[in-house]
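Journal club side-thread
Mid-discussion, someone asked how the predicted structure for our own chain would compare to the paper's figures. Pasting it here so we can look after the session.
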Amino acid sequence: MARKEFLSYGLPLIEEDDIAEVVDTLKSNWIAKGPKTHEFEKQFAEYIGVKHAIALNSCTAALHLSLVAAGLGVGDEVITTPMTFAASANIIIHTGATPVFADIDPVTMNIDINEIRKKITPRTKAIIPVHVAGHPCEMDEIMDLAREHNLFVLEDAAHAVYTQYKGKLIGSIGNATAFSFYATKNLATGEGGMVTTNDDALAEKIRILSTHGMSRNAWNRYSATGSWYYEILYPGFKYNMADIQAALGITQLAKLERMQGVRLQIAERFNEAFSKMPELEIPVTKDYARHAWHLYILKLNLEKLSIDRAQFIEELKLEQIGTSVHFIPLPMHPYYRDTFNFQKGDFPQAEAMFERIISLPLYPKMSMQDTEDVIEAVQKIVERFRR
């Protein structure tokens, strides 16, 4: 029998401490950017081990401002992976630069360092590695390559709060790193993002750009010690985080280790069950990595099954299990395909991977019974449709 209730693909863990902190913010008279935003930035910078953390309204804003502050523009090229969400490349377009895609490593699903090398030209100015699912990219090799060609490295860590590479937390390696605190992320503020960096000048410019390019932000202007006077230093954006979001960030960060423990427990149980089935391939964690387990991406060995990935998803839906797919490669989407004339076969590893991947539910609000229900549903479908 299928579950009686549908198991959502992803839900945040919101507890009484989260609610109390938001209520405290609502009662404080500071609901826009204010003291809690600054406190969240301070705590997050200390957690990552960097000099600067700038809280913004999304990871997209964090990516965009990082490139703008780094001086990217028309005529420049930025290398990133085709296996990512649209934001990773859309922000390149918004700066006037051109996105250049480098195919993936089929083991980790992250950008392949050898493919990056092939795509570097005199116009290349930056690399955006994406830590897919929470597994880190080969950052030593990427940073060495960037230094060799004088390239800016902006890490897309939308999946990678808690991820470590060779003992270093992601967020402390590249020139800048962008995090996401969207509702389904490991640390959730509803909407929200963060830039981390050790570059003083870059951090200062991002802060100014995030509030219309003003020399003084709203907190400075409206507090007892502030001043009404400000100057517009750049044609900036409205990208700052608000205290309501930051309140959630503070409490979520405080229990991140506990939430990650649940994610790891679920991932290990999935690995134990699915590794016994030749029709399935479980995610790999390299020796140098601490995986954040933002996603659990199961690979189907389609030659051993009589159904394709789309049908597998429909069968899981009948079993009351929600799923997703990460990702439809960007060169397959109409805008990128048509604008840059991409053809089938241009990114063979990403294209082949897309045909066989399913993201299963994995989040700390899940119970172990939920976990077992997912396993039972997957096993039932495999047994029914194995060749």
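Post-session note: The mean pLDDT is 96.
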